[in-house]
Description:
Elements: H1 17-36, H2 40-43, H3 47-74, H4 87-109, E1 116-122, E2 127-133, E3 144-152, E4 165-167, E5 171-172, E6 177-183, H5 188-191, E7 199-210, H6 222-226, E8 230-231, E9 241-245, H7 249-255
Antiparallel strand pairs: 1-2, 2-6, 3-4, 3-5, 3-7, 7-8, 7-9
Helix pairs in contact: 1-3, 1-4
Amino acid sequence: xxxxxxxxxxxxxxxxxxxxxxxxxxxxxxxxxxxxxxxxxxxxxxxxxxxxxxxxxxxxxxxxxxxxxxxxxxxxxxxxxxxxxxxxxxxxxxxxxxxxxxxxxxxxxxxxxxxxxxxxxxxxxxxxxxxxxxxxxxxxxxxxxxxxxxxxxxxxxxxxxxxxxxxxxxxxxxxxxxxxxxxxxxxxxxxxxxxxxxxxxxxxxxxxxxxxxxxxxxxxxxxxxxxxxxxxxxxxxxxxxxxxxxxxxxxxxxxxx
Length: 257
């Protein structure tokens, strides 16, 4: 007679089945959200819904995982559920289906908001500027501040790694349209490669950084993510850019009385 297989089988009648699936499902959900870098606050326009889902992303998944673990540890005292409808399984499948449905929807349809309402600069004053629409950023106001970063469009430089950039001071997120001006600073190094009175492209990028971050440590756009910040508008060549004239600094000084 053939021997029966000793490999383990899934037993959905087991009292531990539902809590085990809940624990593993919650952990898997959080892992996928981390891998996809999901941010509900930035991806969803409705603030209350975004904040609720962000709470699920921060602590809700962990609470569900702990509930599942405690449930599974105490489930050995319960007999097998041989009924046709397993209400515990129905409940956790519904919860996990909702959670994964939200992830799929945000991944497919969610987008980082365009917060740049206008941008430009003053070549005589040696600065760049932008109007930042902070209405979609209110959910970040407790932990983050907003900054403006500018650079010169250069097809030979990766704008994310270019150290020749202008970085503004951080501004508190108010939910209003906030004008921000950033002095050229290190961007002057890029202008030295451009002939006087010739035009160049000036790109603008908006980012949010944690309140404890010193913006003087941001030497390139990629430093924002390294300091737990988020870039809201990628500084690709030609994106959110305008044409500027490279007015020599000596000319500006001669005009001063």
